[in-house]
């Protein structure tokens, strides 16, 4: 059965019947861009290495968030629009050689100098180059124009394929009547609209301009929010019982699909995907078996994370306990209706037995061509679109790393490399699976539960930091931000965020962060659990401003407590296309192996 790791105060009790579990085990995994709670040497504190691949927490696999699917263009050319007309693309005939799914993903632009809109757009397929011209048009609101500024001086910026830096796109033109800027592009990267000079009349245009902090770091105002959205479920919450005891129930990932349905990666005895209707009206009974799609083998299996492809198919990653022990890798791919995809592996399932153990911490991502990448501390796997090992990666699709710790989240940083997290550290992973540069967190006891990319080459980490052991164990919420370093391709902790690039946040009790997401304005949302004076655990939602300070306009002094009647822990968080914050977790009543465990959800106003 699944190892049960919970906060108790801030001591995480580990009770495990799997042969691979040990007394110094860590935590469970998380959601796209999120993570699970973890223990430290059998004691407690800190958020855990989680599954999920970050991005904007809406179907955030590396094939592109499915909510950001803009349309399909073929060799004959055509046009697509996205985000209420803010982005449009016109493809000349011959620009692409085959039918191509176009992705337009918004990224918060904290760290980008002089941007007009609070959003830049990442276009995909990643790194695509065109054989004929493609016209990109970005729209803006008149309210985003500084008073007295000549709009014809706007420029379009795009990320250089060579340097990874934002540079002016040649020949961009502005139509002040239509409130648009247009340019011809030859490939896809990240694009936004800016003013050529970072200041206007000597005043900064945006609080984060320039991107380097200088002697006075930029600050941001507190922003109200955090009230329950009463249009969701019953007065803002939705709960449901999966019919299994606590030792056989766990929640890991949360993704919002292209029809605003809520996908949850969970263990219900076996690895499963649950689909909830958009406004929490109930389970979507048209999916799988009355709303639940299951890995069908009778053996016990654990779920780690999932990825959602742009065609709506779901890749579920976990571990399976065979009769002989060990934890071989499990991949299952489901169709949009929740049935196993027969074109993948054997009847929709891949079992890889080449390693006799895995760490129970890991992540899965999909590539634009359908290949699947799995990261684990003991092995990095790559599979072809049909589920067979990718022989061009390592040794028949497997790399056994030498220097990785417990791998948590992973994001595709560029066509040639990846960025991942383990404990509080950030690791570059080369295209061949070898370890690249590592950026170590200077704070001890940190585990990262979420990794998200935002504009300007910045990455946000969210989780928790623990200290002490036994009855003295404690934990705080944790967040960090990295920015591009001085050397090409390098990173560094961003001093514009909390002064040092990383912060721990104490709200007066024993708190732990377990999952994170980033709003369009760069504010970081972290969910987890908290206990006050050793009492019951409440699910918490915390919001951090882009300057690294607590957003005290959110909830009560920056934190929202949700009490579902048991020991309640948030496991996943996602931001929907209206900016609302959707959280998922579990509520435990009674014994931690045989008690009653309920899945709990809530939606908060931004």
Describe the model:
The protein is an all-beta fold and 606 residues long. The chain has two domains: 4-63 and 224-604, Methylamine Dehydrogenase, Chain H; 66-204, Chondroitinase Ac, Chain A, domain 3 (Sandwich). Helix content is 0%, strand content 45%. It contains no helices and 44 strands. The protein has a six-stranded antiparallel beta sheet, with no helix packed on it.
SS class: mainly beta
User: What is the architecture of the largest domain at the second tier of CATH?
Assistant: 7 Propeller
Radius of gyration: 23 Å
Per CATH, the superfamily of the largest domain is YVTN repeat-like/Quinoprotein amine dehydrogenase
Strand order of the largest sheet: 3-6-7-13-9-10
Number of domains: 2
Q: Oligomeric state of the chains?
A: single chain
